[in-house]
């Protein structure tokens, strides 16, 4: 699974700004994800921005109170070179529809089509692409609505709903109330393959009721069995439990709320984990890389300490 975060997206845009023609005077986003990208580009390049429907229908151009450059246009009709943007291109349906509408309504303009992420087979459908990102792929801005969720594992508390507060974790009435009335957080609109939680098995009825109430579809609901709430608290880190389930199933990605647990799940399973806490994709490769950097810094620090101690010892002698 090729996964891209908001951080990846911003980095890709910044590194490829030089590919944008300098005479572009209006940036247009294809709803919905394309408007997000177009807005970021417009801010970096200090150019006006609008969405595709407003552009086609010759709506008003709202620019706010931002500091404008000399060539800043005052209306859509003044545009001479338009950059039409989408976050990605796969089948090319959205781009084809946009091109068709452009051909029908605005033929005199200089128009450039851009997609941030393209497939090798679809890259020629746009004038500019910034990065090849092959299927299967998933983006941070659409992962909760992606068909591939059916092949993923997902934590519940801290991901789909809020985490229980300390006072709510009493294994009694307050916790029952939390289970039944927890506020939703990131609600998936596609079926999730496996919901993997350290909630106790005895709370399955309340959990299933909450999931049904919030319209969440799933294949399996896996809860912690054979332990009491006190035993679960003593276990502390539940990464072993989650990693075992993840490793033994056909899941391609695990969504975990806690960073430390996410790292451990990744290392124990050998599979990627997306951490909700800091919106980071964790893989075995980047964990090993961070450990190497840490070890290098640790060794340098220890050498400095040893050198200072040696000087002090010699001074005392």
List the helices and strands and how they pair.
Layout: E1 2-4, H1 6-15, E2 26-29, H2 33-45, E3 49-51, H3 52-56, E4 81-89, H4 93-105, E5 110-118, E6 128-132, E7 137-139, E8 152-154, H5 173-181, E9 192-200, H6 204-213, E10 218-224, H7 229-235, H8 239-248, E11 253-256, H9 259-269, E12 273-275, E13 280-282, H10 284-316
Parallel strand pairs: 1-7, 2-3, 2-4, 4-5, 5-6, 8-9, 8-11, 9-10, 11-12
Antiparallel strand pairs: 12-13
Helix pairs in contact: 1-2, 5-6, 8-9
Walk me through what this model shows.
By secondary structure, this protein is of the alpha/beta class. The chain is built from ten helices and 13 strands. Strands 10-9-8-11-12-13 form a six-stranded mixed beta sheet. A five-stranded parallel beta sheet has the order 3-2-4-5-6, with helices on both faces. It has a two-stranded parallel sheet with strand order 1-7. Helix 5 runs parallel beside helix 6 and helix 8 crosses helix 9. The longest helix has 33 residues. It is globular, with a radius of gyration of 25 Å. The termini are far apart. The mean pLDDT is 88.
Supply the key terms.
10 helices; 6-stranded mixed beta sheet; alpha/beta; 38% helix; 317 residues; 5-stranded parallel beta sheet; 13 strands
